[in-house]
Amino acid sequence: MKKRILVIAPHPDDETLGAGGTIAKFSDQGHQVYVLIVSGHLPPLYHRQNFEITVKEAKRAFEILGVEDARFLEIPATMIGGEPVHVINRKIEDVIVDIKPQIVLCPFPDRHIDHRLVFESVMVATRPVRTGCCVELLAAYETLSETHWNAAHIEPNFVPNWVVDITGQMKRKLEALDCYESQIPPFPGARSIEAVEALAKFRGTQAGFSFGEGFQIIRMVG
């Protein structure tokens, strides 16, 4: 049975860093994959031009990964907290109501404040009431450069309990990530191509295959 999958990302590139191979795999299997980008490099901290560059980069990446459709809420990066809680919750919920996804992938609540706030809103928007009842699987992905900088045993630690085999999609994940020329630093940058490939090898070997993406399942029904 074909599914509708919604990947919610705080910023352009988070979706590819955390779930690019899984997006490509779902797409290869004939499922419909949607991406929601909550914020971006917008004024007052950035010039509008910076945001437009990342949107173009994202759209090229989405084409490589096989994304059905993408939406951008255009909230300034690091300023999601300036939105009233009920407003950001409703904006995310409205997308869920429209798409009615069976699978939702969201950011793990890590070092970046935007990731934490988006996670909190997703938890509200996907509650198993009304439209949220359509969500069969809710899981959090890791984002290199943020997830692994949490204070161990003081803050939440990312411990995957679901690893997706992306061996057949790894090349496309790296190609998509390479589209983000303005965001991906050279090695030894935490989000560099080499670092992303190394993490995928590690997650894969944890589960017995060559390349993998790890997720923490929050809720699953069957």
Structural summary, described in words:
This protein has a seven-stranded mixed β-sheet, with helices on both faces. It is built from six helices and seven strands, in the order βαβαβαβαββααβ. It has one domain (4-220): LmbE-like (Rossmann fold, 3-Layer(aba) Sandwich). α2 packs antiparallel against α5 (170-178), α3 (85-99) crosses α4 and α5 packs antiparallel against α6 (193-207). The chain is globular, with a radius of gyration of 16 Å. By secondary structure, the protein is α/β, with parallel strands linked by helices. It has helices spanning 14-28, 48-65, 85-99, 113-125, 170-178, 193-207, and strands at 4-9, 32-40, 69-76, 103-107, 137-141, 162-165, 212-220. α2 (48-65) links the parallel β2 (32-40) and β3.
